[in-house]
Amino acid sequence: MHNVTLPMAFNDYIIREITIDDSTSAYKMRKNIASCCDTILATSDEISLEGMKLWIDSWLRNDKRLFVVVEDNKNIVGQLWVWFSDSKAKLAHVAEIGLEVLSTYQRKGIGSKLFEIGVEWARQVGAIRIQVQTLERNEPMRRIIEKNGFEYEGTKHCYVNNNGNFENMVCYARLFCKNDD
Ligand SMILES: CC(C)(COP(=O)(O)OP(=O)(O)OC[C@H]1O[C@@H](n2cnc3c(N)ncnc32)[C@H](O)[C@@H]1OP(=O)(O)O)[C@@H](O)C(=O)NCCC(=O)NCCS
Prior knowledge:
Blueprint lengths: L7 E3 L2 E5 L5 H14 L12 H12 L4 E8 L2 E10 L9 E8 L8 H15 L4 E7 L3 H9 L3 E12 L2 E11 L6
Parallel strand pairs: 5-6
Antiparallel strand pairs: 1-2, 2-3, 3-4, 4-5, 6-8, 7-8
Helix pairs in contact: 1-2
Bound molecules: coenzyme A (COA).
The site of coenzyme A has 23 residues, from strand 5, helix 3 and helix 4.
């Protein structure tokens, strides 16, 4: 296991933890993705600047949550979220990962890099199980998940209502024993 050290350079970009000053840029990026991409769960209406600020603020104060951004020329072009369930002690070993990359920056390896960072960070802070779910048709996300050794666990049928089209969600997980490398 390698420790995650942020900030880090990745090709022409900087990968670093978010700050509250990134709220507007992070909000704009999410709005952009929601307007052109229907593989995320949020609708454009559900994404607000105030909501983004509250989200960033609460995650920065929780050491079992990671919010990372990819920066290109002061613009945020990618986001990664890793979170542990903090409401139930019996689920405290379970981490979950989500990510988004602006469409003009996709297919450059950013999503793969973010996912690797998410897995390493989750392991560093004690995850025994890391889980992730995505739309069944989300080929790039499934590719990233599978190439990182996650196992398919099942399908949630008709789980996402995409404008009246009820889509399947696929679930994956990877398990780590405490003494794993
Ligand atoms: C899923 C997502 C994060 C991938 O980000 P990315 O930066 O394009 O990913 P990468 O460039 O690292 O590519 C990952 C793999 O998918 C493949 N890939 C990328 N785009 C693809 C496409 N449109 N169709 C098929 N495969 C694709 C790449 O070739 C790569 O495979 P490889 O490692 O075998 O070469 C990005 O597409 C995205 O943000 N989508 C919208 C939001 C979303 O769906 N998020 C996930 C919600 S669960």
